[in-house]
């Protein structure tokens, strides 16, 4: 009898955790009919928010990939004093409250911020523009990519890279033809996670970029705006973000295993092209 | 890869220059209580509705905007003194009411009842015009103790309206003009005239606006062609 208690306790805890974590998600879909949700997605507020989100998160992701991939590669390949400090600081936005990120971006790039005068001299004003959304999203989302990329790039067999170098491939060629194909899946997973964090960004965006429909109002900000004005729109946008999140979660879980299975073929392809 | 980086930066720079352009649509930053009425007065501009205080902060931070419309005298006064907006024009007045969810769960009969213990009250935060007006009405009613009942201070008056409409609270202090949209889910308790603060809406051209002429025409329109729509929505003449 007593022995049965422990598994029962486990099962009850699991049931509680599962219900608690899935109920709010289910409730979004149960509060309004699917037809109504789809109809509300056609509203001007929703369409504008989708466009702004798509635009800003895509540009932010491009910035993250273009700067983040070589940066992570440098961190993975080079050993230098203070490296662990650099790694820790680049990961800081993961745990930093988004509101702090917002006020920090304003303090740095705001009109009256650290670099505000310099930017103003070039006629550039960032706060409350779409550029501010992009920078806020880049700031909070990039560690998701950097972290994943660093882990993936550190896991590469240095012997393979050194072999390619000995055979005459330039470092840039090694990076392009061997490093990227070998770690592609893991980098893709990191990019997907970063993109998902980006489209969900709220706190830094509302402080640094404001909430102007069609300009800086992203999906989460539109939910916040619609919450007090038309809750069905807020629910519809919520449902949309849940579906996107589920898709992202599945992608991020599937992508790394895709690399693992294609690792051998990718390395043989790299071998045949670089040799 | 370098080319991709440059392309991304070019797009970023282009995005940084967007908004508040000459000959583009006017950008109007307006008090949240005007959310429904201003697009009726003139559907053309791009509107951003929020608490007048939050909008003032945006203007100080250089947000691209052409017109600033506040529900208070204080915020335009400060911005005028800082040289960030032109001379403000008064174009409407409003009054406060208490909104309760349909069925009036806390049985609020008069304005004073919101100070009864156990009433879950929402109002706008201090510094937000609707919040400051609500406080001064409570003081005039001699019911400053009602602040003890506040379960949430909202960023703007629409936050208060939304919480009442959800039925999540017993009462909220809002503008009389906020009631129409939630009339099917809320009831109104009047606040007597003698406890009403003076609530005036001011519009001003943002000093940095590249569309100064059209911005002042927009504000003139609020006093002339747009006045009927404002009155229909329950706003009073200045």
Mean pLDDT of chain A: 89
The largest sheet of chain B, given as strand count, sense and whether it forms a barrel, is: 5 strands, mixed
State the largest interface: A-B, 31 and 32 residues
Low-confidence stretches of chain B: 14-20
Oligomer: heterodimer
Per DSSP E runs of 2 or more residues, the count of β-strands of chain B stands at: 10
What is the count of β-strands of chain A? 0
How do the helices and strands follow one another from N- to C-terminus of chain B? Answer: HEHEHEHEEEHEHEEEHH
Count of separate structural domains of chain A = 1
CATH arch. level architecture of the largest domain in chain B: 3-Layer(aba) Sandwich
Tell me about this structure.
The complex is a heterodimer of chains A (275) and B (238). Chain A has 275 residues and is mainly alpha-helical. Chain A contains twelve helices and no strands. Chain A is globular and about 65 Å long. With 238 residues, chain B is an alpha/beta fold. Chain B folds into two domains: 2-93 and 199-232, D-Maltodextrin-Binding Protein, domain 2 (3-Layer(aba) Sandwich); 96-195, 3-Layer(aba) Sandwich (D-Maltodextrin-Binding Protein, domain 2). Chain B has eight helices and ten strands. Chain B has helices spanning 2-17, 38-41, 52-60, 74-81, 129-141, 157-166, 212-223, 227-232, and strands at residues 27-31, 46-50, 67-70, 89-94, 96-101, 121-124, 150-154, 171-175, 186-190, 199-205. A five-stranded mixed beta sheet of chain B has the order 2-1-3-10-4. In chain B, strands 7-6-8-5-9 form a five-stranded mixed beta sheet, sandwiched between helices. The chains are: A mainly alpha (275), B alpha/beta (238). The interface between A and B is medium-sized, with 31 and 32 residues.
